[in-house]
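Task: complex structure prediction.
Instruction: return structure tokens for all chains below.
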Amino acid sequence: MKTKAKDTKPYHHGNLRDALLTAARRLLETEGHSDLSLRKCATAVGVSATAPQNHFANKAALLTALAAQGYAELEAYMRRNSNEAADRNVRRQAALQGYVAFAQDHPALYELMFARDRVSSNDADLMRQVGACFVILADISKDFGQFEGDPASVDAKRQMFLWSLVHGYAQLLTANRFKKDAMLGAGILDIIPDMLIESGR
Amino acid sequence: MKTKAKDTKPYHHGNLRDALLTAARRLLETEGHSDLSLRKCATAVGVSATAPQNHFANKAALLTALAAQGYAELEAYMRRNSNEAADRNVRRQAALQGYVAFAQDHPALYELMFARDRVSSNDADLMRQVGACFVILADISKDFGQFEGDPASVDAKRQMFLWSLVHGYAQLLTANRFKKDAMLGAGILDIIPDMLIESGR
DNA sequence: GTCTTCATGTGTGCAGTGTAAACTTTTTCT
DNA sequence: AGAAAAAGTTTACACTGCACACATGAAGAC
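Output:
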């Protein structure tokens, strides 16, 4: 090295993959999905237009990594205010409200997390993060009784019921499909009938 | 005109807007959303690349029209096997199953119908079709009791509950988020607790 | 009947995109 | 030290949405 300025930009970035993800995340949340391009991420990080190819096989791979990161964050939202609570009711409410809060705070990312043909749904890392979120919901779902069938299918129905309800609520909320005043005042806990909850346990 | 072949393609298409929508619909369902381009629609119809601009201000306008068409079709799915039934229980079940069947038959279109930044959510025609679907669900939702509050907010909660549940179920199903065997066997009616339904009325 | 108007086509051009390929610069491994 | 690999660069190409100028033909005005 010809000992030019000591702080010249190094040829290798050092942590380009993470930097690209961070830039992509910011672009997604500020400009929206349709304005997110690999080239914009690259120039935002200060690197050539094709450098991302060394870290992501294609654009779908980057979006998949972004979605996986989203699920990890969703899990954190659900666990926040939830883990330290001893009361099962409090933990359940905190997790459900955390789920919806995440979707409201990051609507574009949340939509990406369920987009069928933008993320590659067979990615191992993605599915691991999905599973981590599902574990929390599956645990909570045990509070909801009154389904028929053998124990295994009852568990499955509880889980499907709860996830469908909270995901549907979150997406309809962020997609502005709830418009009436009476709707905007109702949170996720308000639309779960009390009679459905087996409070004890 | 030099009286060439009598059946040459006329300069004006005659019904280009509908033809473009049909082509776009086919492209969406066969190639997927990411491979849908205005140019491909144009060439599929046999028209120049920029002809669509005369009928759609931009790509979002075409996608919005496609989504509106999707809501109209969703309504038809819900009304099929539903309108002629006198029994309220039968009509409710037919409508819910029709909703899910539509999402399964047209997953790419269904996803588009809730995509925040691909369709312009302030389109009047789109919102009219959304409203038509919502009316059906709102009617059905009257069967679900046990919410608290004044009558208006109880109605709102019923509607939000039902739409969230069925939309969440439909999307999680088409996005392959239900993976366990016990889940794949459960339909939308199976995950609605019987105790929630006020059968009479 | 001609003329004018205008909706609806076509062609060209441009900035921007994802991705492939060949090359260059570092780091790392032996 | 030298080879190999990792991680950058430049160049190239097909494709996209869209703006703009122009061509065509149908429909109403006179």
